[in-house]
Every structure is written in structure tokens, then in C-alpha cells.
Amino acid sequence: MNRQWLNQAIEKIEADYVRSADTHLILLPLACFPNIDIYLKDESTHPTGSLKHRLARSLFLYALCNGWIDQNTTIIESSSGSTAVSEAYFARLLGLKFIAVMAKTTAAEKIKQIEFYGGQCHLVENTSLIYQESAMLAAKLNGHYMDQFTYAERATDWRGNNNIATSIIEQMKKERFPEPSWVVMSPGTGGTSATIGRYLRYQNLATQLLVVDPTHSVFYDYYQSLNPALISKNASKIEGIGRPRVEPSFVPGVIDDMLKVPDAQSLAAMHWLTQQLGRKVGPSTGTNMVGVLEVAKRMQAAGQSGSIVTLICDSGERYLNTYYNCDWVNENIGLDLSYRDYLKTIS
Ligand SMILES: *Cc1c(COP(=O)(O)O)cnc(C)c1O
Questions:
Q1: What is the average per-residue pLDDT within 238-252?
Q2: Residues near 189 by Cβ (< 8 Å), separated by ≥ 6?
Q3: In whole angstroms, what is the distance from residue 163 CA to residue 212 CA?
């Protein structure tokens, strides 16, 4: 192990961090919930466009400090796209080769971005094949398989150190209800939910964590049954979230409640939020929003006041040909029209 190269690699990641700004926490005023304040942590503004920028930084630091990467290591990752974009950025920063293993249905815009950062895309027939293909490539090329689905929860420093949870709680300090009643998040690796849930407990906050799962995902059923062998035959249609198997980074013990969100509602909420904000958000942000509105409705019915925080996970600009294309939506998912009508009453 070349310690000099290792030190320089860590220095480069740290310097990149010092050059970076924190993401905004945006207030979403809704007159129909006068006693409930809703906030969106805007993770789309990271240099690589999603919350996976944080994860990629953590995964690289974890692998470097564990001695798993040196100057000749090819980095391999299984991804639905966002993580690969962010890892390609950090691999380029360190001068390392990077290969993303993804389903061939991955958004073309993400593939372009991975290639922009000098990464290669290795496309496979469907999502369930990405894990074994990544392990195989790593063995063949003598590379390192990052394996976000296993390491996301442990690579992130959940006690603090500027993770997303610390940032949210700090940014809420001067608000009307500084301690959120709920944080709402959708799981891909489950890592962000694990970090937030652990931090809320570690800080003795009363805040509860709601995790919202899309249609073709096993996380919701796993939360109910705790059966780790659950498998879904269909891949999730909401990019970035929902998995066909129980991922090791999904930590059920720190989740206070879960909600299953139909994909057609996620898309209706994505379009609704896009109108509210005046800019496009990604589909998993729509899933988050369905959860937020459900919690707001429940709180209002119970006569409670307070705040709710969720994430803008990425921007909608990546999905102009899919979730923002009417023909694609009608062919692949459909819009829940009665839910859309319900959303028209929310402003
Ligand atoms: C990864 C991802 C999520 C889920 O985050 P995890 O920390 O992996 O659970 C949500 N939305 C998008 C767009 C993502 O890329």
C-alpha cells in the first residue's frame, strides 16, 4: 500500500469538500395547512446533481481508509445511475478508472453524465443482474466493487460530521417548529434513511421517520415481516428507489412508519411539486411528497401543528424523455387522475 498516494487521495477529497457549499432547505408554503410547515432539503444542487454526491464521497473515503483502493484500482459499481454519476466524478478526481454496471433502462441522461466524467457504462438486461455482474467484473479486472447497497449505511458517519441529518437539524434552528415532527424519505440503498433515523435517536429528538416505498419494491413488506429473503419479480419503475431484494443497508429498526406509494401517485405528485416550485424534480421526490402530504393530512386531522422535512433527491432535467414525456408515462406507469384532482385542492 502506497501511503503517499493514499494521503494525497484523501487530501483531494477533503479539498473538494471544503470548496463545496451545503444544500438549501426550502420552505414550501401551503395555505391549506396553516399550522404545518413543509421543508425540502434540495439535494439536486450538489455538483453531480443528487444526494448520491454525499454517498459517493463517503464510499470513497471508507474504501480508501480501509486500504481497498490504490492508484491502480479500477472502481466498479452497481447502480440505478445516480450513484454511478457521483462516483465517476470522484474517480476522475483521483485519476482512477470507473465502470458502472446498470440496467439498460437507465435514463440516457445519466449514462451521458457518467461518460462525461470519464466513466464507462456496462449495461445489463435488468436490475436483478447488476450485483453478480459487478462482482464478476471486479474479480476479472482485479478491481474494487464499491457495493453501495451493502456499504451505504456504514460508510456514512451517522453521529454527525456534517451528514445530511446534522445539516437538516441545524438549518431548522430558527424556524417556527425547529424540531420536525416527521422526516419523510424514500429508500434506494436505505442509507439516507438509516443515517437520518440513527441521528434522530442519537440526538434524543422527538422527530419520527416515515419511509415511503414505491410499487415494485420489497422494503415495505420486509418492514412488516422482517423476512430477508423477499424478492420482487418486477424492477421498480421509480428510478433511484425501490429494490427487488432486501438491501443490507436498509435498517428497519430506525424507521417509525412506512407507507406504500403507488407509482402513478408518485408521478402525479412529481408534476404537482414541479408546478409549486417552478422547476422540475425527479420521480422519487414525487414519492416523498405523497408521504409528506399524507402525514400533513393526518396531523391536521388530529389537530396537531409542527414541521415536516423531506428531500428533493434529484432534478427532473434528467428525465425529460421519460417521466416528463406524456407518451412514456402513459405506456409505462400512467397517472393517477383522482390523485391528481386531489392535488389540485392542495395549495
Ligand atoms: C439513491 C436515491 C434515493 C434513495 O436514497 P438512499 O440513501 O439510497 O436510500 C432517492 N432518490 C434518488 C434519485 C436516488 O438516486
A1: 97
A2: 55, 83, 148, 149, 152, 153, 247, 249, 250
A3: 21
Probe ligand 1: pick from 189, 213, 280, max atoms within 8 Å of CB?
Answer: 189
Q: Tell me, rounded to whole angstroms, the distance of Cα 154 from its chain centroid.
A: 16
pLDDT of residue 262: 98
Residues 6+ apart with CB under 8 A from 136: none
CA nearest neighbour of 44 among 316, 322, 324, 319: 316
Distance between CA atoms of 255 and 185, rounded to whole angstroms?
A: 10
Residue in 44, 45, 52 to alter for ligand 1 test, most ligand atoms within 8 A of Cβ = 52
What's the CA gap between 219 and 211, in Å, rounded?
9
Asked whether the whole model's pTM tops 0.70, one would answer yes
- Whether residue 63 contacts residue 55, with contact meaning beta carbons closer than 8 Å, is answered with no
CA of 308 to the centre of ligand 1 (A): 19
Partner residues linked to 120 by β-bridges: 99
Domains of the chain, start order: 3-46+157-346 (3.40.50.1100), 53-152 (3.40.50.1100)
Q: What is the mean pLDDT of residues 80-90?
A: 96
Query: What is the number of the ligand 1 atom nearest to the C-alpha of 187?
Result: 9
pLDDT for the residue numbered 303: 98
* 282 close to 314: Cβ distance less than 8 angstroms: yes
Distance CA 52, CA 26 (A): 19
148 lines ligand 1 (CB under 6 A): no
pLDDT at 137 over 90: yes
